[in-house]
Input
Amino acid sequence: MTSDNPALRSAAAHAKQLGETNGWSPSLVRCAMDGLTAVLEGRPPGRPVKLTEVRARIPRHASSRRVAEVLIDLELLEDDSALAIRSWIDDRTGELPAGFASDVRAWLLVLLDGDSRAKPRSHTCLYVYFGCVRPLLENWATTRGHLREITVTDVTAGLSPLRGWQRRNAIAALRSLFRFARKRGLIFANPTTGLKTENIPRSLLPMTDAEVLAVQQIAVTPAQRLIVALAAVHAARVTAIRHLTLDDLDLPNRRITIAGHIQRLGELPHQTLLAWLAQRRVSWPKTPNRHVLINAKTALGSEPVSAEYLKRHLLHQGVYLEHIRGDRVLHEALTVGADPLHLALVFNMSHTAASRYAAIAQSLLDDQIEQAAEGE
Output
């Protein structure tokens, strides 16, 4: 705050202001100031700081995200993170066999930047696509020297060991690569023409007692139990759970609004909500965030928790929320006699999805009737 550098003094004052507005703890404000000192001390006034420099130079105890927030507001941050993905492309394609490296690099750059006919793809898409084609290319390189030498037989043989989503993703990646190569005149014929991805069937059978017990044993924290309760009782989707706000809760009247649909709050969600909100108040009493689910990161701002938050707490431990949600809808369908209109109204779902659940429920009911008849 007393630095001779006017840019650093201004940044420190803004960090303090942001801290007061967003409920940052005093230690977090001090850490942000330490990070600002590391990147602004000795820098000419007005000269922007690169994002990669922020991440590399600030002390380990400082938050690069908070430092970046301050610099963005002061128009002193230059986001050069795109350079990181380009370096990744150069490094990974440089490890490929010589005959394939340049073509694959050009393909990935088009995915990254887009062209006149296609929008840029996400970095995640590039990682997935390259991860799918790399082992195939390395295997083909033992007998082939260029993409133009790859045949339909080679593609079929390369895909034959793959199953499920691994096969589906590999087909999508290969189709993208060879379409690009054909458009650029790098190959004479596209060996993936006519290659189609297969639909991956989803399990819509009722959960077994063992599966229910497993979920109960894993979901032990207040946050985990609340997430599971919302999916199990109200059939709430992951996105709806993440975006649920305090304004969507009417605890005295036992009402909850999920994705714009008002429902009576079930007993289990009501109890788990009370437990979680109590922990939330103790952990982050001054948070400005209005979302029900928050963590140490989002408590400092106003954003919902990320999808990765739910994956880390449940999916990575074997709890599939979509399976739990499907089980709830299917249970309702079995209870009311497979009525799609009832499902659409209760769970605010499309008539197509409701009809699908109703058809599965009717099939299960018919099987029960047949088994009962055979038992007689």
Notes: The longest helix spans residues 351-375. The radius of gyration is 27 Å.
